[in-house]
Structure formats: structure tokens, C-alpha cells
Amino acid sequence: MSKLTESPAWQALRLHHAAIENVHMRQMFGEDPARFRKFSLEFDRLLFDYSKNRINDQTVRLLIELAEQARLPVWIERMFGGDRINNTEHRAALHTALRNRSGRPVPVDGKDVMPDVLRVLGSMRRFSDAVRNGEHRGHTGKAITDIVNIGIGGSDLGPQMVCESLKPYAADNLDVHFVSNIDSSHLTDTLNRLDAETTLFIVSSKTFTTQETITNARSARAWLVERLGNEHAVARHFAAVSTNLEATSKFGINPENVFEFWDWVGGRYSLWSAIGLPIALYVGMDRFEELLGGAHAMDEHFRHAPLDKNIPVLMGLLGIWYGNFFKADTNTMFPYDQHLHRFPAYLQQLDMESNGKRVDRDGQTVDYDTGLIVWGELGSNGQHAFFQLIHQGTRLIPSDFLAPMHSHHPLGEHHAIMMANCYAQTEALMLGKTAEEARAELKAQGLQGATLEALLPHKVFPGNKPTNTLLFDRLDPHTLGMLIALYEHKVFVQSVVWNINPFDQWGVELGKQLAGKILPELRDAASASSHDASTSSLIDYYHQHR
Ligand code: G6Q
């Protein structure tokens, strides 16, 4: 057994789990009228209700002991303080410095990174203002109307999710598009709708070597040069965001339009850096800075609130409670806000790429489960699709429900109906429906005897399904910044308890290497080397059918 599973806090949680496993939340709510007050927190107009969880006072106390045993407060300070906590890449993880609005220095190896952070924010402001007010025009003198971000993974999902979330704040005269997929349909479908004279491309790539991005960028460049008939057009129609300035200059991007960031920013944590340039262009730099401000507010909460009053800490520990003790495999999230429709996809990368690890920080194979599978969908759409399995399937699926108090587009009863759906789901998941309740309902519908008894088991809901509810005032930039930072820190909390490094991604790197090996063999049948029988046959099939 590993140190973690042998540890006193873990063992105490195992015993406690055995005692509480079969207790129904109906009973817990019945016995404790103060349950909501006890198990909810409010911070900066964000309400976190975690009372519909299979926990009592002792559970919270033991989970906090687990966090203390893992020295979580020390790790939090190490992260904020710029220690090289990404130990396999020997890097700091300082996404928090990118949104540090406190004026405090953040040293990495004794050098304050804040002057560089503020300098790039200044360049982003100048460039985004110039494009938005028509000062920076296309090669033929027309104002820019469309931004195309070319990037993938962390250089796509974050900025795309934020742009979608902040649509109500977008300028009328500027649209934004995201091309990530190497399938040429993605680029072609996007470009077909655009005019080269008024299109600005941003090539976003931390490494500037990612095959998909570089290939899409080359094709976009060829499209532009062909349409505008002049190589010089590239200078006014291409910008780049990268840590690899040598590669951006080799690609031929005007150095004035290159925005840098640093190796201490992980791809999936990079939307706060110049990778957020499409956000600044789309909603303006003031809004982008409000987003940073919201994340900073959550950073301060995470850093300074006591562990048992700390929203990301409690969310992270609840995930461990279900994943490691109840053996839940997955964790869902349901935003009841149309503009958050890319949030689940974004969160999948953030969580699964960070905590999808099978060895601990010292390289030892772990003997406990780590990252849960994350999935989700907009409420109420999900209700009409897969909620059946959450209510009546055999698995335990803890879920997060997110909803705003105000819609950006109030319309009749829409918001009230939406909220009624949200609340009704968490209530039903918690309460379930007993056989007695189901029988009474069926009787009231006029059923009886064998017909009633045959239908009865299908109408019973076990309930006792855990949910968190997060309510916020309105999906504005500040709130969105808070929500994203909240999930980032939740993931970090879990990684600390599991003793894994959440900031590397060797599985992603593997994909990048493997495709590079097979590509020459698809280009030229003669160059095929030996693979397993399946892969060799699939390569042959490709040559036979092309
Ligand atoms: C993120 C991952 C990965 C990465 C993409 C794109 O944390 O490392 O999703 O963002 O592979 O990488 P580049 O930005 O280097 O093109």
C-alpha cells in the first residue's frame, strides 16, 4: 500500500465511509434543519451550496484532515510563490501571476515576472484597440471584421469558451472564429464565409510546432495570399501568440504582431496570457481585464480562506470523497446558461489532462484512483437526454449545477422556467421517490392490482445522488473569471492530495510523436516500416483506397 492509502486521514475516511455509505440524504436533511446554512458558502456574489452531498460534520472534518496531511496550504503557497512545482518539466505553474492584480511581485528564480506580464498586457491592449477602432486595417485598407484563431487544445478551448461565454459583450462589427481541427473541413468551412480583405488570423501555439496548427496556419496563409495577390498582405493579416519567438519569425509573422508568453504557463492554463488575445479583440481589453480581476478574486479566496471555508478546497475534496471512497468513475457539470455551452469541453481538458496521471510525483505507480472522467452538457438540454442514467442507472454520478440569477436576454418566463428545472433536478436527485410515494401516485392515476405492482419498481427512484449548486448573479467577465479559476484550483487541490503533478501532459506529447512517424508512410507507400498487423493493414488500406 502507498503512503496515502496507509495514512491516518485516509484510513479514518474509509471507516467513516463504511458508516455513512447507506445513510440517505433525506434523513440527513430531516435531522438537521441547519444543514443548508452549515454546508453552503457565499463569496463575491457566488453561492456554493454543497448541502446535497453525502456528508456530515465528521466527513468535512476528516476531508480537511486529509488536505492538511497532504500539506495543501504549503503547496498553495509554493504554486503562488513560483516554485518549480511542475517537477517533470522543471517549471513553475504561474497562471495566477498572469491575473495578479495586487501589485505584488511574483519571483521565479529571484526574478519578478510581473513587469513582463504587464508589458504583454499593454501590447495586447494597444493591438486590440487598434483593430477594434479601425486603426489597424487590412492590406487593402479595409477595417478588420473577422478574427480567426488557429490553435488547438489549450490554445483553442479556453479562449473559445470565454468568447462564447461573453458573447453579450462583443462588438457588433467584429466576429471571432476558432479553427482547431486538422480535418480541412474546419478551415474550409470557416474561410468560405469570410472575406480575406477583412480577416485577421491569430496563430496561437505555445510551442509553434504543433502539426495541426502549423498546417492550418500555412493553408490559411496560402488562402490569404491567393485572395489578395500579394505576399506582403501577410504582415497586416497575421498575428501570433507563442513562447517560441524564433519559430514565429521563421513563419514570417511581423514581429510587431507577435505576443509572447512563457514556459511557466501551461497550455490549458493559458487563456489568461496572450493566448487570450482573441478574447481581448472580441470583447475589448477592459472586459478581458475584468475577467483577470475575477480570477484574481478567486485566487485570493483560495490562498487566504481557511480550508473549511474555501470553495475550491471543498469542491476538490468532495471529488476525492466520491472518486476514492464511493468509487464514482465520473463527475458531471451542467451549466444552466446557454453562453456556457463550451464550458464542459473546456473543463474536460483542464481536469482530465491535469489529473489523468498514474504515477505520483516520485514516479511510483499509485494504488488509488486519480482524476475522474469529466463530462457534461447544458441544462436543461441534458435532462432530455442522459439524465435518466443519473436518476435510475446503477452508477453514482456526482454533479455540479451552475446557474445565473439574471439572464442577459430576459424574455417572459424563460428564466424562471429554467431555474425551476435546475432546482427540481437537484431536489429529485437528492430525494428520489420511494415505493410508497410511487404507489400513491399510481393509485391516484387509477392504477391498481397486478398492473400497479408491475409498474411500481420502474417508478421508484433511489435518490441520494450528490450535487453541488453554484449560483452567480450574471455571467459577466468578472464572474466567469472566478468560475474558471475555481475549477483550476479544485483540480490543483485534488492533485496535491493524490500527490501527482497536474501540470505536465506526457500523454498529449505521445500523440504528437506518433503521428509524425506514420505521416511519411502515408505519403509514400515504399517507406512503410514494420508495425503491428493491425496498423500495417490500416496503412495498406489507405494506399489501396486513395
Ligand atoms: C495543454 C496541452 C495541449 C496543448 C496543445 C497545443 O495543456 O499541452 O492541449 O495546449 O497540444 O499546443 P501548442 O500550444 O504548443 O500548439
Plain-language structure description:
The protein is an alpha/beta fold and about 550 residues long. The chain is about 50% helix and about 10% strand. It is built from 24 helices and 13 strands. Strands 1-2-13-12-10-11 form a 6-stranded mixed β-sheet, sandwiched between helices. α5 crosses α16. Glucose-6-phosphate (G6Q) binds next to loops.
Short description:
This protein is an alpha/beta fold.
Computed structural class: alpha/beta
The amount of helix comes to 40-55%
The average pLDDT score comes to 97
Distance between the termini: 53 Å
Furnish the topology, listing elements before pairings:
Layout: H1 3-6, H2 8-20, H3 25-31, H4 35-38, E1 40-43, E2 46-49, H5 57-69, H6 72-80, H7 95-98, E3 107-108, E4 111-112, H8 114-132, E5 146-150, H9 157-165, E6 175-179, H10 184-192, E7 199-204, H11 211-228, H12 234-237, E8 238-242, H13 245-251, E9 258-260, H14 277-283, H15 285-304, H16 311-325, E10 330-335, H17 343-355, E11 373-376, H18 387-392, E12 399-404, H19 414-431, H20 435-444, H21 449-459, E13 467-472, H22 477-498, H23 506-523, H24 533-544
Parallel strand pairs: 5-6, 5-7, 7-8, 8-9, 10-11, 10-12, 12-13
Antiparallel strand pairs: 1-2, 2-13, 3-4
Helix pairs in contact: 2-5, 5-16, 8-14, 9-14, 9-17, 14-15, 15-22, 16-22, 17-22, 20-21
The chain binds glucose-6-phosphate.
